[in-house]
Amino acid sequence: MAKAIDLSNGRAWKTQSAALAHFKDMLARYSDEDVVEDRADHDDLIALLERYDAVIVDGPSKIGDGVDSFFRRRNTGDGYSTPGFWVRRVDGSETDFSYLAAVRGAPKSNAQEFYDACRAAVAADLKAAKARHFKTYGDELGRVPCELTDELITIDAAHIDHAYPTFGQLVLSFRAARGWQHEVPPGTVTVPADSQTTTTFVDPAVVAAFRQFHHGAAILRIVARTRNLAMSAGQRRPKVRRPVVLT
Q1: How many whole angstroms separate alpha carbon 213 and alpha carbon 196?
Q2: What is the pLDDT of residues 192-232, one digit of tens each?
Q3: Are residues 17 and 88 in the same domain?
């Protein structure tokens, strides 16, 4: 059964998908650092933020002492940059919030937070390896072949893919190696905080351990971003002709 979404300002949608589309379209109407000036948009975001605070119970209130305004800003980290809504409070403090989490009404699971921390631990390694691969093997236009199709692609059109094992499998194997199959010890990953767009490991030793584990087990390849990575899903261990090397 479809799950209806009702906000405190009276806005309602018959499905989560319809609510998500509404806020996605709203985000697209603004440019980075633009303040949300439209009164109806502001009211919808206030009501959405109230929903967020009601369901995301393991972090600080996003509303805090009160909302002054909303604006769009890039959420950036190693290897990614995505637009999102931010709130500026009446005391001048600012923080991000996820309209996806607010609409869906559920925080990330502990498993997802751990996965995100693993991603953050190796993001810089992957970015550097990708740049090194293109510098070493690029043609006169800086292009290298896509591993799936052999089409020549630029670095901006490329995705560095975990051919085998998948990144999810690596994360599960790392947890098992540390005896964390069923539960990750409290305090292993950072708790939600203002302006924190990336979950990370608290202990640098865990960061180093996962980086070493990932370095020894990951088989990486370059594929075009536009390709469906499921093309090779039937291969348990695909042959990689031009592996991306981690150093």
Answers
A1: 26
A2: 666 666 788 999 999 999 999 999 999 999 998 876 454 54
A3: yes
What DSSP character marks residue 9? Answer: T
Token reading at 50: 């109230």
Owning domain of residue 23 = 5-104
Q: How many CB atoms are closer than 10 A to CB 97?
A: 23
Token pair listed for 126? 């992957």
- What was the pLDDT predicted at 75? 86
Per residue, what are the HEC states of 127-194?
Answer: HHHHHHHHHHHCCCCCCEECCCCCCEECHHHEEEEEEECCHHHHHHHHHHHCCCCCCCCCCCECCCCC
Cβ–Cβ under 8 Å, residues 170 and 183: no
Question: For residue 245, with 0-12 CB atoms within 10 Å meaning exposed, 13-18 middle and 19 or more buried, which class applies?
Answer: exposed
Cα–Cα distances (Å) from 229 to 116, 149, 219, 232, 234, in that order, read 20, 11, 15, 7, 11
Q: Which of 51, 82, 104 is the last residue of a domain?
A: 104
Residue whose token pair is 């709130």: 87
How much is the pTM?
0.66
Q: pLDDT for 19-51, tens place per residue?
A: 999 999 999 999 999 999 999 999 999 999 988
* CATH code of the domain containing 42: 3.10.450.40
Q: Which residue in the block uniquely carries the two structure tokens 């209130």?
A: 61
